Amino acid sequence: MCDVCVMEVVKGRLSRRGFLSRAVASAAGGAVLSASALSATANVLPESVSFSNVIDLTQTLAPDFPTFEGGPAFEESYEYTFAKDGLNLKTLHYHEHVGTHFDAPIHFSKDGQSIDEIPIEKFVCPLAVIDVRDQAANNADYRVMPEDILAYEQQHGRIPDRACVAMLSGWPQYVETEKYRGEDSKGVLHFPGFHEETAKFLINERSVYGLGVDTLSIDYGPTKDFPVHYLWLGSGRYGIENLTNLDQVPLAGATIIAGAPKFKGGTGGPGRILAVY
């Protein structure tokens, strides 16, 4: 979503009609939106959408941000500086899966969709936040279980169709410490994730678009074979890793606006993730 659009929706409590009229106006002004894009927006949003809060679920990416492999998140160099050239411009070198980022189906499947091929309507959807902070506080290797989903639904109702289901483990509080990766003396990582049985449950018993975590991986730290990645991405769904501020949104009732990158053939990539409610 363009910055202008975000600013507009933040200014007021918008109806779908108001949102679409802005989109049409933007298109007339040069920000081209196709008919299919407008149709996708209409399909995603309910008859009326209103909100007064916007929460940034995106970690600030810096070279020292924790990575799964343990190396720098990216390398940067200034090609131009204001003092010398009258402008600032950096060159960045990073792989697709650093910071708050997306996993596209092709990341763990032979012929799944790349990040640019995922329909845009899947990136604007209800957000269901599964709070397992108590469990994770006592067990760094905790995995979200099917019973956690059922307990959530007992309290908040059935997970909406087309939702993104996100784990709230509380791990962002450790992002500047070694505990975020949790690497032990044998090189094994320790942080929470989803259990493969939960992935199966959400694939077979619910109609869910995305899976999100506030840790480095939708699989838990000690994984060796990444079963959740293979199951979830292999089913044509996407993942979002290294979310933050999930404790600032309601467990039910928020909408996620997931600004996925659009690299041709990309297996994922860093993005900007917002939640509104």
From TrEMBL:
Q: Does the keyword Isomerase apply?
A: no
InterPro entries associated with the record: KFase/CYL (IPR007325), KFase_sf (IPR037175), TAT_signal (IPR006311)
- Species this protein is from: Pseudovibrio brasiliensis
* Pfam families per UniProt: Cyclase
This one is known as Cyclase family protein
Question: Which PANTHER family does its entry note?
Answer: CYCLASE-LIKE PROTEIN 2
Q: Does the record bear Protein biosynthesis in its keywords?
A: no
Q: Which domain of life is it from?
A: Bacteria
Q: Which UniProt keywords apply?
A: Plasmid
